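Researcher: Structure for this, please.
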Amino acid sequence: MTLATLVFEGAVALLVLIAAVMLWRVDARLRALRSGQDGVRASIIALDEASERARASLASLQRAARESGATLEQNVGKAQSLSDELRLLVDAGDRQAEGLAARPRRKTIAEHFPEGGRKTIYSDLKDVR
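Model: Predicted structure, token format:
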């Protein structure tokens, strides 16, 4: 064996040792990944359960929205009919107010009795009593 062969075989042995160390590290990482998969599986199961609960919640929310929508539609119908009735009442009140405003003004007592009839009527009423 020559010196060159010995150096070459030493280099190959060193490279094999380095490869063994790298393979050992890869194996450790793969073991960690495999053991972590159990946690991933549990997380996936928990996520699936949460999504099922979310679907159930959405279904109940949709049902509640439909029910409240129907109730709201009924209330809007009632409010519309009350609004129409109120509009009719306001229009009737406006017509009556216009009719009252168009009437001639009543004369006051002073206009009926320019000589001061108020005092005499009051005293006349006292006398009648």
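Researcher: Any notable elements?
Model: The mean pLDDT is 84. The helical segments are 3-102, 109-112, 117-128.
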